[in-house]
Amino acid sequence: MALTRQTKRDSNLRKGSVPEFGRALKEHGLRMLMHGLARLPLPLLHRLGAVLGWGVARWPNRQRRNALINIALCLPELTADEQRRLRDRNLREFGKTYLEIAYLWLRPVDQVLSLIREVRGAEWLARRPGQGLIVLSPHHGAWELAGLYLATQGRTAIFYKPQRYLDDLIRESRARTGADLAPITARGIRVLVEALERGDFVGILPDQEPKADKGAVFAPFFGIPAFSMLLVNRLARRTGAPVIFLFAERLADGSGFVIHCLPAPEGVDSEDDQVAATALNCGIEQCVRLCPEQYLWPYKRFRCRPEGMPKVYTGPLDDAHALEQARRVRETLARM
């Protein structure tokens, strides 16, 4: 019996080692790919990314469908042809976003920061002595560059979600300009509070759907109920820190980026959760409207639905059904 149990344990260990070996192999492959891409000039990476995005836009797939559904939901003032054209431009930008990341992570910091051609609204980064500042960077444009730039302006703590792959590389890259990375945990939130109380910057990606009901409410995003975080509100109320938005717009010719800083709408620090979440989403909308083709439209922002609302990301993958799905969702919302 002992021999049998030992044999089973050995067999289980061997089985467990296969996924771990596969993960390590994939990690190594991804690192090699990133280092290879980082050697290429940024304009070439952008051209390759645009070609990749063009390919994604050519055949039915979920990214293509979800982007069109989101655009049709959020920008109903556009015609169907305009929505499709925006989706196609967006997927080309989507390709650029993911190929340029290697360049932003692995090229020398001075070389990366030299790509910033202009900073608009830099006065919003000013702080009173001892006062912290909450800086929100949506998934818009080159969000990796936004975080690197912010940390050059003063001591910064950035809220960070640990990743299954390339986690060490991501942490090292994001910390290159001096940022402290705070994991998305209760301990990480304490790090953010302490940073604000010291008078530091705190960077947060504000447009991801929270994983739990606690600390989130449904609030309109382009008029559509979206499950929205209350963390920004809680931090602002607890520390008295003002809130701004910051994102890096990608220039069309591949020559670099423009940093935009905008004040958050009034109410983001309201004691009313609904008012606060609505103000947060309104600020994200203001960023998106400056260059809508660079927002992360393929992301399932409306995956979690209020009771009685239909699922959003479902059905066939062709454009006609995607537009029809968006129309049904809006009609259901209008009847509620």
From TrEMBL:
GO BP, sorted A to Z: glycolipid biosynthetic process
Lineage: Bacteria, Pseudomonadati, Pseudomonadota, Gammaproteobacteria, Chromatiales
Classification via InterPro entries: LipA_acyltrans
Signal peptide per UniProt: none
Keyword Cell membrane in record: yes
Cell location: Cell inner membrane
Keywords: Acyltransferase, Cell inner membrane, Cell membrane, Membrane, Transferase
Matches recorded under PANTHER family: LIPID A BIOSYNTHESIS LAUROYL ACYLTRANSFERASE, PHOSPHATIDYLINOSITOL MANNOSIDE ACYLTRANSFERASE
Protein name per Swiss-Prot or TrEMBL: Lipid A biosynthesis acyltransferase
